[in-house]
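Cross-check.
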Amino acid sequence: MKPRMSYGCLLGVLVLLPALCHSENSFTPSRATYYGSPDCYGTPTGACGYGEDGRIMNDGYVTGVSRLYRNGSGCGACYQVRCKESQCTGDGVYVVATDYGEGDRTDFILSPRAYAKMAQPDEYQTKQLFAYGVVDVEFRRVPCRYSHYNIKFKVNENSKYPHYLAIVILYVGGAYDITAVEYWQEDYQQWKPMRRAYGAVFDTQSPPRGEVRLRFQVGWSNGVTWVEPNHALPGNWEAGAYYDSQMQLD
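Predicted model, tokenized:
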């Protein structure tokens, strides 16, 4: 991948949301590059299916991943990535995985904003880091912290009320992977699985009438568990709408 310089990203970068905390996990060596972006933020067409949220999530400090994508279950994972060149800071950058991407033996294809954040706050140093194109890095998984957000359900724009429902789950705190989503089928008094359509998008061709109770399975280092928010999707859900779960994970 040929890097494209975007100097508007280079200075004054600041993570506004969410604030990501440190982890005790050890670092893993890898490589990182960056992709071109007209505004230095992420892309609204990322493979995770976050849309415009994937462009601005974490104030644009986002990344495409390759092997860490894990068929979409790696979407939304948070990482600390720091490079090893003399131009780099010790803390690096905290990013959210919002896309799939492969580079020159890289695990991370960062937004220009995220790539610039790895450099020391000096324009000359940052330009030098961009000139490398691909850099050696080390990374570790860290919990996501969304201090001002609850978990949200977004109804994908391709949904067709009432016959087809596709959702994506946003702002999941902690170091969890969403491995499955189910909805409650009142007629049969049982949970029904939704299909992982792609990335972080789950869908069903037969959504229930009325409000839609959802639960999702999260996996982490100690196992898996089901999480059911107290708030269901309303019976008149709409494509493109966001619904607050009124809950968050640590």
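The radius of gyration is 19 Å. The chain is about 10% helix and 35% strand. Passed to J.P. for a second look.
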